[in-house]
Design a protein that fits this description.
The structure holds two protein chains of two kinds.
Chain A lengths: L6 E14 L2 E14 L3 E5 L6 H8 L8 E10 L2 E2 L5 H7 L4 E4 L13 H13 L3 H14 L5 H4 L9 H13 L5 E5 L7 H18 L2 E6 L2 H7 L2 E6 L2 E7 H6 L4 H8 L45 H5 L5 E2 L5 E2 L4 H6 L3
Parallel strand pairs in A: 3-8, 3-9, 6-7, 7-8
Antiparallel strand pairs in A: 1-2, 1-4, 4-5, 9-10, 10-12, 11-12
Helix pairs in contact in A: 3-4, 3-6, 4-6, 6-7
Chain B lengths: L1 H28 L4 H6 L5 H11 L5 H13 L13 H36 L4 H15 L2 H15 L15 H35 L2 H8 L4 H38 L5 H10 L3 H29 L6
Classes of the chains: A alpha/beta, B mainly alpha.
Chain lengths: 338, 313
């Protein structure tokens, strides 16, 4: 067991790379974070920042034909996962660490009944009979508040709506009482009203079961409402980490600030013409990850960037109160208005 | 489902009618005259005309056609011009070897091709996959008769493991029956197997890239369950379709295979009847082959509904 006892998951210097025709893509480049028992951690960043790859790396579900974990360490309950045998890893997946995916429409198998897809997970990991597993599946569907759960067991995914399918995914993911639930954009593909229901459901079940959650999203609104701590990723690197209140009170990385300025705000008074200030986008594009980036990955898009930013990667520094940030110019950023 | 099956059964009737019309006229427009063959090489024109009148072949096509159709509707496929035996009896006598050969080929090909295709997809772009696909291309390109003679040369002539030719009915013992079928089944089945293996691999590769396979892996399921249940069941519809299409391939292959291996089945009967312009026999045989093909398609269509719950009729 690890000495830093309170954490159920410890990721250190994770590097995940993919081989492409353009060369090696460093999708995750030295990311570290901890997850405490029962905690909800948010990972936020735009598309392609490596947040989903981080999630898949934890479960070791990176397709071996194209990608690999090239370095770093992932410790679950003190046990190193990057070197764990495949059979032992299969024993963890769906049992002690489970995952919900973004697309509920395509994440369930179209030719197997909902009941079978939940029950097979229970049979696999709990060593119970199919009959008992089916009963467990019914309880889980009932728990995620699917009406007429007994009948739904024998239905196929195409007979369910998107929101119901995501409920089924949650029921499936929680069916073996996992210690860690990784939710990769669980609400992105859903209607706004359904999004709120699904998030509430996840948080409520978390209270009941004590499962720690890693919530991956590009939606800062979701982060604000559901998580306790936030990791901000950019171009495969962690650029900032803070308790959620601290992050929203005083974002310290220019990238985080850019994300926040891009959120529509209803609390700012409209002017006489009924107009609110224009949303500000972050100029430029995410850098290509096939070439090593010498300095700060955000420097080409950053208004604060200096020569040093482009030459040397900024280390993560403690800004107090559990708030860390990787920025050479943090003092200037802090002094400027949001 | 029952209503669907009944509807499909009725839908086969127009298909069979079209086949009947087609067969009748095709064979009559083909060159060659059975009367001349029966009358012999030195026969006078008068003698040939006599034979023709006796067989009813001097009547107008349409009249011959309606006589044949009326007889057929009464279950009478007519009488062979040469042997004077009822066509239905000729077919029944020859049906066992052909059914045995077709079914054993179908069974062997499907039983080998699907696992091969699954493994190739699972180990895509690795050595196993390349070997399997190399074999598939070779197998698909190899004509049945060439492969048949190669097999006979090695397994029957050189190593004397299996009989060179001939067919032993199942009534004469199971092992001799199986022995006589091995080489013909392999010769006939290789093309078919290559086809099914290729489509299985392609279909599996597409399915293995789907999100729900990632979900299955995220449950920590055993590899065989992911491959054989989660993936193969989704990949099944195209595979079953090709198995069905391949039956037509088998039927044409049977004619050649039976000739090479000297098996007294429907294929040989067909070749003999065509060469002699034995119209009633050829007509009866083609109808039987067409009916078999229609039946296979019916079974395939019905199987879709069982394989994929999204398909409903």
């Amino acid at each position: 067991m690890s000495v830093t006892s309170g954490n159920i998951l410890e990721v250190r210097g994770l590097q995940t790379q993919f081989n492409t025709l353009d060369g090696v893509v460093r999708a995750v480049d030295g990311v570290s974070f901890d997850l405490a028992r029962g905690e909800t951690l948010g990972i936020v960043g735009e598309s392609g920042c490596g947040k989903s790859v981080t999630a898949l790396s934890i479960l070791r579900l990176i397709p071996p034909e194209t990608g690999r974990i090239a370095g770093g360490s992932i410790k679950f309950e003190g046990e190193e996962l990057t070197t764990l045998g495949e059979e032992a890893m299969k024993g963890l997946r769906g049992h002690r660490i489970s995952m919900i995916f973004q697309e509920p429409m395509t994440s369930l198998n179209p030719v197997l009944t909902v009941g079978t897809q939940i029950a097979e997970n229970v049979v696999r990991h709990m060593g119970v009979s199919w009959r008992a597993a089916r009963e467990r599946s019914f309880e889980m569907l009932d728990l995620v508040r699917i009406a007429d759960a007994r009948r739904r067991l024998d239905e196929y995914p195409h007979q369910l709506s998107g929101g119901m399918r995501q409920r089924v995914m949650i029921a499936l993911a929680l069916s073996c009482d996992p210690q860690v639930l990784i939710a990769d954009e669980p609400t992105t593909a859903l209607d706004v009203t359904i999004q709120a229901q699904i998030l509430d459901l996840m948080l409520e079940l978390k209270e009941k079961t004590g499962t720690a959650i890693v919530l991956i999203t590009h939606d800062l609104g979701v982060i604000a409402e559901t998580t306790e701590r936030v990791v901000v990723m950019y171009a495969g690197r962690k650029v900032e980490e803070a308790p959620v209140e601290a992050l929203f009170a005083e974002p310290l990385h220019p990238y985080t600030r850019g994300l926040m300025r891009a959120i529509p705000r209803l609390d700012i008074e409209a002017d006489a013409a009924g107009m609110r200030p224009r949303l500000q986008e972050i100029p430029g594009l995410v850098p290509r990850l096939t070439q090593p980036i010498p300095g700060c990955a955000f420097a080409p898009r950053c208004g604060f960037a200096t020569e040093r930013c482009r030459a040397e990667p900024p280390p993560l520094v403690d800004a107090g109160g559990g708030h860390t940030v990787a920025c050479w110019e943090v003092d200037r950023v802090r002094a400027s208005a949001l | 489902m029952t209503a669907y099956i009944v509807r499909r059964l009725f839908a086969t009737l127009p298909v069979m009618a079209v086949v009947a019309v087609f067969v009748f006229f095709l064979i009559r427009f083909a060159p060659g005259d059975p009367a001349a063959i029966i009358a012999g090489e030195d026969a006078t024109a008068e003698a040939i005309a006599q034979v023709r009148a006796k067989l009813g072949l001097d009547r107008p096509f349409m009249e011959q056609f309606f006589i044949w159709i009326l007889q057929m509707l009464q279950g009478d496929l007519g009488v062979s011009i040469f042997s004077n035996l009822p066509v239905s009896r000729l077919i029944v006598q020859r049906v066992e070897p052909t059914v045995a050969l077709t079914l054993s080929t179908l069974f062997v090909a499907v039983a080998l091709a699907i696992p091969i295709g699954v493994v190739a997809a699972w180990k895509a772009r690795r050595l196993v996959d390349r070997l399997v696909m190399g074999f598939a291309v070779l197998g698909f390109a190899m004509p049945v008769f060439v492969l048949a003679y190669i097999l006979i040369y090695f397994f029957a002539v050189q190593w004397q493991l299996l009989p060179v030719q001939g067919y032993r009915p199942i009534a004469e013992g199971f092992w001799p029956f199986v022995e006589s079928l091995i080489l013909p089944s392999v010769a006939l089945g290789v093309t078919y197997m290559a086809l099914i293996a290729r489509i299985t691999r392609a279909s599996m590769l597409e399915v293995l890239a789907q999100d729900y396979i990632r979900t299955a892996n995220a449950k920590g399921l055993a590899t065989d369950r992911v491959l054989l249940l989660h993936a193969l069941k989704n990949a099944a519809v195209p595979i079953v379709t090709v198995i069905g299409i391949g039956i037509a391939l088998l039927i044409s292959g049977v004619v050649i295979t039976e000739t090479v291996f000297n098996i007294p089945g429907l294929g040989r009967l067909t070749v003999d009847a065509v060469l002699k312009r034995d119209y009633p026999v050829v007509q009866g045989l083609i109808l039987v082959f067409a009916a078999a093909k229609v039946l296979v398609n019916l079974i395939i269509d019905i199987s879709y509904a069982f394989l994929d719950p999204r398909i409903r009729y």
